């Protein structure tokens, strides 16, 4: 085996450590005296070792082994006993007792030191107990949820409700609730956070028990512990579902050792002494140089040492590593000896010197140690570094994290070590994503943020869109100074965090290096394989929480990955002018269908991949020259049918993980347990990546390529990057795509993975962290309210004033804490740079969707998450990064809005998209888009043909699709134009519950006259467009309002029962939804009548009269139900039940009034006459309902003015802030008109016999006869019936025609014939 060392290579087989007579004649060995001096200098005994033990005899390589044996001999007083120790019972290696010492379901890792709760409240104890002396152990808190950590005796009995501390002789500390537990509970300690270390100390000599948090004592928790015969205490923990910790009983050096207390597990004392002495010898080699010419030893700085290939030095190192190598696979020695040595190198000298020194040390490891020894050592080294990085306390300058990251970088810069770690450790054994995470300090005082940000400030309002801003007072000079001082502190914090982030990016740059392919595969392609498996595990294991990467880690990983990716992308562009800049990046559509990239079981826009391959195989052949192998199609089909996967051989051979449930449960090993030392799951879904067989000659344009299956691990660089005869990932280019490459294909796959990461959990975490900003806003409002109360409080009420001052102090302290924490969150998650990263992903998704759309039917192969990320990233930029950063400041903001608008407008009804969830997401996104002025203007900027197509899809009949969101979109286009429809918040909510009026969905009206005009033009065009659309609206209105009435009847009955009843909150929510739907459908009808009144009032149209009669019928039903005196609606509104806040008279009555005013006031005389006759002809019409609108119980006498409304009654006149005087005048005009018309109809109407009434509705006279059967009904009934059915009501004969029927005329005709 060869290694690079100072320009020379050495074969380890050249060195024999056995002594023989020829050793002295080895060429290159220095003369005996210099060799003796050199060896004595290197292998000198430590100061505390007796000189007699290693007497100064003449040393050479023959007697050096004997000398080393004496040097490494451990005195009895130094050697620790590894067996039983007084005061302790149990195995010397302390682990968690997964065979019997547990309760509930728990997941325990292979090392039996890490545990995850997998049930309500599981408990587990250790295998070793103590009964005498002073002992401690440490717990690394991986999640900050509900846990009780402490000690218990073997007699304690636990269950799913009672854990450690809930029974006698068990004691626990709970940092989640900040309490201590021993049957009863009291306040104790302070809150813990993920990344903290809890030390559990028991002093059985004094009978006390205490805890420390990150080395700081929390004080004595319990005294007078029970002692004596049969009383021995086990370390124990109870933890709830998904909570996780890692124990350190002494198998690793304690992070916070306590004087006088001993870890439960003894350290490897003899090995530790030997390792330290051998390290001292190694240090001596690095600091001494041989000068054979002068015959002397030269002292020099170890940072300047170089391995020159001198046989004396090489043989000396060989003797050292012969003894040192077997010790370096032990985690305790790696952490206590090796990491300390390497960190010392990093902290001394320049970075270049440290890098060179670490590189040489690793060269020596690979040269003098067996491969398995180096690999074990590197594995333990990286695991320890990861643990140290994660559980290091946050200090103001982040120096600890910086040192650990720099050492990690120096190790990874060593090519051979990097490739081994990348292939076998970083993604397989470790949760290496932790290296890219910067944990947020829960206790700002410990993180030094008080010194870094001495002055706190907080915004007085939320800048997030969706919240109406109140007018603010002008900022005072004092507030301005505070804000500027706070911003300076935030900048100082951000600069320090950026140092850590840059180091993290350097790690990823090393992992993405594709130029280190000398003697093996380049790092980037190893990374791609591991990265794809990482994505697969997180995409496929959503139901198995331990398998997932925590979202907070994924956010940081994504941003660092984007930085490294863009670096290599633009670097490639610099050397390849034909390539694209990273700002122009997108994913070519052929990657979605050529099978080179595995998307696991993720849904495609067109459905399952196997289905698409079968249905679109002809399109693939025609557009992409790809032929699907029939055998592959058959295999894919069988895979779809057989969902039960077989365990892989690797998983079958691997020992099952320990599970505390009476034995091991055959679950996959949870690789995403919260401890960094846990291994990755070896079982993945049995989906193989599909690749194209690489042809060995260039393809002509007409030649086809067959598809075969290829696992991710089997892919080569050629399969990814391609060659002169293959396009790699880009094989199967459609004619719409350019021939020149965007960048290296491997970078395209990394980018694709980054977009998938955002979809998996990053967006969710971005929304979650906004909670800190929301907390600041809430406390700021509470503080301002308290200060207002203090100013208004009478001076004589000192008791009230004292309480208010106390509240003010609490709120101020909380705001100081939160504002500093908010600064950290903004620097790590919501900074300008992070916002640009998310914006970059948004623009990439938009370009990718646009390019995919051009491929026609092949667009169906695109994974759904591209559309999801486009929608969600826009939402994040709009809602999560304010008020510090605004999306409007981003480059190309207007263009991006317009492109996203075009995508939403085109694809919300795209037949190529079949997934229900993604179609709903598109519809909801479009509904939100038209709600805001900026985005609505973007919709208006898209090409006219796309706008018209969008409106046409919105006007499709509701019965054929989910219609609620479509209706909301139409309503939002109208809002601000309707009768009394200019409100931002519902008026009755302002009166009864003002806080609820600040709902994000309630926006200022921003109607679109342009889209309204498109709607009017479309409704006028075809003879069937308007009738089919309006009939569907009327049908849904009838259903929604009927459901609403039925539900409030049930609610009323439940409320009136004598026994205490609770109405189901889901029922209340559905009831309120039906009411809101009824109001929105009425508003759509109002918009239609206003824009295209002739649809209802021009009776030259065949369907106008029928539509008008149906509309009048529904309006009368709504009015009668809502306006009846002391009716059901009134009683439910009076109850004001939670969940029914939106149910009130105003929203539904003004919507009905708007329709009536347009029909009866705005039209011509002939239109008004038609509308009036139809309305009055409806048997449900009651003039009293119209009077109700103006607060009157009866219509006024002709010629008299309207009396003042009763304040206790509903009246539109009470809403002058929302209804203009002109609108009120129109309502009065309508009432006067209907009063007069109803009086005239009453005077002129003749009694109608029952025989002459329609036998269907009994409301109108018979006016139509069916041919050929001759049965009769009114025109309204038969017209409505014929829309859905052609059979006669009575005889089921097919109706050929409908003729007018007049009893008088037909009677006369019959008499004449007679």
UniProtKB/TrEMBL annotation:
<dbReference type="InterPro" id="IPR045129">
    <property type="entry name" value="RNF123/RKP/RSPRY1"/>
</dbReference>
<keyword id="KW-0832">Ubl conjugation</keyword>
<dbReference type="GO" id="GO:0007249">
    <property type="term" value="P:canonical NF-kappaB signal transduction"/>
</dbReference>
<dbReference type="InterPro" id="IPR057987">
    <property type="entry name" value="TPR_RNF123/RKP"/>
</dbReference>
<dbReference type="GO" id="GO:0005829">
    <property type="term" value="C:cytosol"/>
</dbReference>
<dbReference type="InterPro" id="IPR013320">
    <property type="entry name" value="ConA-like_dom_sf"/>
</dbReference>
<dbReference type="InterPro" id="IPR043136">
    <property type="entry name" value="B30.2/SPRY_sf"/>
</dbReference>
<keyword id="KW-0597">Phosphoprotein</keyword>
<protein>
    <recommendedName>
        <fullName>E3 ubiquitin-protein ligase RNF123</fullName>
        <ecNumber>2.3.2.27</ecNumber>
    </recommendedName>
</protein>
<keyword id="KW-0808">Transferase</keyword>
<keyword id="KW-0862">Zinc</keyword>
<keyword id="KW-0479">Metal-binding</keyword>
<dbReference type="GO" id="GO:0008270">
    <property type="term" value="F:zinc ion binding"/>
</dbReference>
<keyword id="KW-0488">Methylation</keyword>
<feature type="domain" description="B30.2/SPRY">
    <location>
        <begin position="74"/>
        <end position="254"/>
    </location>
</feature>
<dbReference type="InterPro" id="IPR001841">
    <property type="entry name" value="Znf_RING"/>
</dbReference>
<keyword id="KW-0863">Zinc-finger</keyword>
<comment type="function">
    <text>Catalytic subunit of the KPC complex that acts as E3 ubiquitin-protein ligase. Promotes the ubiquitination and proteasome-mediated degradation of CDKN1B which is the cyclin-dependent kinase inhibitor at the G0-G1 transition of the cell cycle. Also acts as a key regulator of the NF-kappa-B signaling by promoting maturation of the NFKB1 component of NF-kappa-B: acts by catalyzing ubiquitination of the NFKB1 p105 precursor, leading to limited proteasomal degradation of NFKB1 p105 and generation of the active NFKB1 p50 subunit.</text>
</comment>
<dbReference type="InterPro" id="IPR003877">
    <property type="entry name" value="SPRY_dom"/>
</dbReference>
<dbReference type="GO" id="GO:0051604">
    <property type="term" value="P:protein maturation"/>
</dbReference>
<dbReference type="InterPro" id="IPR001870">
    <property type="entry name" value="B30.2/SPRY"/>
</dbReference>
<dbReference type="Pfam" id="PF25576">
    <property type="entry name" value="TPR_RNF123"/>
</dbReference>
<comment type="pathway">
    <text>Protein modification; protein ubiquitination.</text>
</comment>
<keyword id="KW-0963">Cytoplasm</keyword>
<dbReference type="GO" id="GO:0031965">
    <property type="term" value="C:nuclear membrane"/>
</dbReference>
<dbReference type="InterPro" id="IPR013083">
    <property type="entry name" value="Znf_RING/FYVE/PHD"/>
</dbReference>
<comment type="subunit">
    <text>Component of the KPC complex composed of RNF123/KPC1 and UBAC1/KPC2. Interacts with UBAC1 and CDKN1B via its N-terminal domain. Interacts with RIGI (via N-terminus) and IFIH1 (via N-terminus).</text>
</comment>
<dbReference type="InterPro" id="IPR035773">
    <property type="entry name" value="SPRY_RNF123"/>
</dbReference>
<dbReference type="Pfam" id="PF00622">
    <property type="entry name" value="SPRY"/>
</dbReference>
<keyword id="KW-0833">Ubl conjugation pathway</keyword>
<feature type="domain" description="RING-type">
    <location>
        <begin position="1254"/>
        <end position="1292"/>
    </location>
</feature>
<dbReference type="GO" id="GO:0006511">
    <property type="term" value="P:ubiquitin-dependent protein catabolic process"/>
</dbReference>
<dbReference type="Pfam" id="PF13920">
    <property type="entry name" value="zf-C3HC4_3"/>
</dbReference>
<dbReference type="GO" id="GO:0061630">
    <property type="term" value="F:ubiquitin protein ligase activity"/>
</dbReference>
<dbReference type="GO" id="GO:0000209">
    <property type="term" value="P:protein polyubiquitination"/>
</dbReference>
């Amino acid at each position: 085996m060869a290694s690079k060392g100072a320009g020379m290579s050495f074969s380890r087989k050249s060195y024999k450590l056995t002594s023989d007579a020829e050793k002295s004649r080895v060429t290159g060995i220095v003369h005996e005296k210099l060799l003796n001096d050199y060896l004595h200098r290197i292998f000198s005994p430590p100061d505390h070792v007796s000189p007699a033990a290693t007497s100064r005899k003449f040393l050479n390589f023959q007697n050096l082994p004997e000398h080393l044996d004496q040097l490494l001999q451990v005195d009895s007083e130094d050697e620790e006993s590894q067996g039983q120790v007084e005061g302790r019972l149990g195995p010397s290696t302390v682990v968690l007792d997964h065979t019997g010492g547990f309760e509930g379901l728990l997941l325990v890792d292979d090392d039996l030191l890490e545990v995850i709760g997998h049930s309500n409240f599981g408990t587990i104890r250790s295998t070793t107990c103590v009964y005498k002396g002073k002992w401690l152990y440490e717990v690394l808190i991986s999640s900050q949820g509900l846990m009780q950590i402490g000690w218990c005796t073997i007699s304690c009995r636990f269950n799913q409700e009672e854990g450690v501390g809930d029974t006698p002789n068990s004691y626990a500390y709970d940092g989640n609730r900040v309490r201590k537990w021993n049957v009863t509970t009291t306040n104790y300690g302070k809150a813990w956070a993920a990344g903290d270390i809890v030390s559990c100390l028991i002093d059985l000599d004094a009978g006390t028990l205490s805890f420390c948090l990150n080395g700081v004592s929390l004080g004595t928790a319990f005294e007078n512990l029970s002692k004596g015969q049969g009383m021995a205490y086990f370390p124990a923990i109870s933890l709830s579902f998904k909570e996780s910790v890692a124990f350190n009983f002494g198998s690793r050096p304690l992070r916070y050792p306590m004087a006088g207390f001993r870890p439960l597990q003894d350290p490897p004392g003899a090995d530790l002494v030997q390792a330290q002495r051998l390290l001292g010898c190694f240090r001596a080699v690095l600091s001494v140089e041989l000068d054979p010419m002068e015959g002397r030893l030269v002292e020099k700085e170890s940072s300047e040492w170089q391995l020159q290939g001198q046989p004396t030095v090489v043989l000396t190192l060989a003797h050292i590593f012969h003894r040192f190598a077997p010790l370096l696979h032990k985690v305790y020695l790696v952490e206590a000896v090796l990491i300390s040595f390497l960190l010392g190198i990093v902290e001394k000298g320049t970075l270049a010197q440290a890098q060179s020194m670490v590189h040489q040390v690793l060269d020596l490891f690979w040269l003098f140690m067996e491969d398995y020894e180096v690999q074990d050592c590197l594995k333990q080294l990286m695991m320890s570094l990861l643990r140290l990085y994660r559980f290091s306390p946050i200090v103001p300058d982040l120096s600890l994290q910086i040192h650990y990251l720099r050492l990690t970088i120096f190790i990874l810069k060593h090519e051979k070590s990097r490739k081994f770690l990348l292939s076998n450790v970083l993604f397989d054994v470790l949760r290496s994503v932790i290296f890219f995470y910067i944990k947020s300090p829960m206790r700002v005082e410990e993180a030094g943020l008080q010194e870094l940000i001495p002055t706190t400030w907080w915004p007085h309002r939320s800048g997030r869109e969706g919240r109406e801003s109140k007018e603010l007072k002008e900022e005072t000079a004092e507030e301005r100074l505070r804000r500027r001082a706070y911003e300076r502190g935030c900048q100082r914090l951000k600069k320090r965090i950026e140092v850590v982030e840059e180091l993290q990016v350097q790690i990823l740059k090393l992992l993405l290096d594709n130029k280190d392919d000398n003697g093996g595969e380049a790092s980037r392609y190893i990374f791609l394989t591991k990265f794809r498996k990482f994505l697969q595990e997180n995409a496929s294991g959503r139901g198995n929480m331990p398998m997932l990467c925590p979202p907070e880690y994924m956010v940081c990983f994504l941003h660092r990955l984007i930085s490294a990716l863009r670096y290599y992308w633009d670097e490639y562009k610099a050397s390849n002018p034909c390539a694209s800049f990273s700002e122009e990046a997108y994913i070519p559509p052929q990657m979605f269908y050529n099978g080179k990239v595995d998307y696991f079981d993720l849904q495609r826009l067109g459905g399952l991949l196997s289905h698409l391959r079968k249905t679109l195989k002809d399109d693939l052949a025609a557009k992409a020259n790809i032929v699907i192998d029939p055998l592959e199609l058959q295999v894919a089909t069988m895979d779809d049918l057989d969902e039960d996967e077989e365990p892989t051989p690797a998983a079958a051979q691997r020992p099952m993980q320990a599970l505390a449930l009476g034995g091991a449960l055959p679950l996959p090993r949870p690789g995403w347990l919260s401890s960094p030392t846990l291994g990755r799951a070896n079982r993945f879904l049995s989906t193989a990546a599909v690749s194209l067989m690489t042809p060995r000659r260039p393809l002509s344009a007409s030649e086809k390529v067959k598809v075969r299956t290829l696992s991710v691990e089997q892919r080569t660089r050629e399969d990814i990057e391609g060659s002169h005869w293959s396009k790699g990932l880009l094989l199967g280019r459609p004619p719409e795509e350019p021939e020149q490459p965007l960048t290296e294909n491997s970078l395209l796959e990394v980018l694709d993975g980054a977009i998938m990461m955002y979809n998996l959990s990053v967006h969710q975490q971005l929304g979650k962290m906004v909670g800190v900003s929301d907390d600041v806003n809430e406390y700021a409002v509470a503080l301002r309210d308290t200060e207002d109360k203090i100013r208004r409080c009478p001076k004589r009420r000192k008791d009230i004033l004292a309480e208010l001052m106390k509240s003010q102090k609490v709120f101020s302290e909380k705001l100081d804490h939160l504002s500093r924490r908010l600064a950290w969150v903004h620097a790590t998650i919501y900074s300008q740079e992070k916002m640009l990263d998310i914006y970059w992903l948004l623009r990439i998704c938009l370009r990718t969707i646009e390019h995919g759309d051009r491929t026609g039917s092949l667009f169906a192969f695109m994974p759904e998450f591209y559309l999801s990320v486009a929608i969600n990233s826009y939402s994040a930029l709009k809602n999560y990064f304010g008020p510090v950063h605004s999306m409007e400041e981003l480059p190309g903001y207007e263009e991006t809005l317009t492109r996203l608008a075009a995508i939403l407008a085109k694809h919300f009804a795209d037949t190529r998209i079949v997934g229900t969830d993604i179609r709903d997401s598109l519809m909801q996104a479009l509904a939100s888009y038209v709600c805001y002025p900026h985005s609505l203007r973007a919709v208006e900027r898209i090409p006219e043909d796309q706008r018209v197509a969008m409106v046409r899809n919105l006007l499709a009949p509701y019965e054929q699709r989910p219609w609620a969101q479509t209706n909301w979109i139409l309503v939002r286009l109208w809002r601000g134009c309707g009768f009394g429809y200019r409100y931002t918040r519902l008026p009755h909510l302002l009166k009864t519950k003002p806080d609820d009026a600040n709902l994000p969905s309630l926006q200022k009206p921003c109607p679109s006259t342009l889209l309204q005009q498109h709607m009017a033009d479309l409704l006028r065009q075809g003879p069937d467009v308007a009738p089919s659309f309006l009939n569907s609206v009327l049908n849904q209105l009838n259903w929604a309002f009927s459901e609403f009435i039925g539900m409030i009847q049930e609610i009323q009955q439940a409320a009136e029962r004598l026994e205490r009843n609770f109405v189901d909150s889901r029922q209340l929510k559905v009831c309120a939804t039906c009411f809101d739907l009824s109001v929105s459908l009425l508003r759509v009808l109002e918009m239609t009548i206003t824009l295209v009144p002739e649809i209802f009032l021009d009776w030259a149209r065949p369907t106008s009269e029928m539509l008008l009669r149906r509309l009048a019928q529904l309006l009368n039903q709504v009015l009668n139900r809502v306006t009846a005196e002391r009716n059901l609606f009134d009683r439910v509104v009076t109850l004001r039940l939670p969940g029914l806040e939106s149910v009130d008279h105003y929203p539904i009555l003004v919507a009905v009034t708007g329709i009536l005013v347009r029909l009866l006031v705005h039209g011509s005389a002939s239109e008004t006459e038609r509308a009036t006759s139809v309305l009055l002809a409806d048997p449900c019409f009651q003039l009293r309902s119209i009077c109700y609108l103006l607060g009157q119980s009866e219509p006024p006498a002709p010629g008299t003015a309207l009396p003042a409304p009763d304040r206790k009654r509903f009246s539109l006149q009470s809403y002058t802030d929302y209804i203009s005087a002109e609108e009120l005048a129109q309502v009065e005009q309508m009432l006067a008109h209907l009063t007069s018309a109803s009086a005239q109809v009453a005077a002129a109407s003749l009694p109608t016999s029952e025989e002459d009434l329609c036998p269907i509705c009994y409301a109108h006279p018979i006016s139509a006869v069916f041919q050929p059967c001759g049965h009769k009904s009114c025109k309204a009934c038969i017209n409505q019936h014929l829309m859905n059915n052609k059979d006669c009501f009575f005889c089921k004969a097919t109706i050929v025609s409908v003729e007018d029927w007049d009893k008088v005329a037909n009677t006369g005709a019959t008499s004449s014939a007679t």
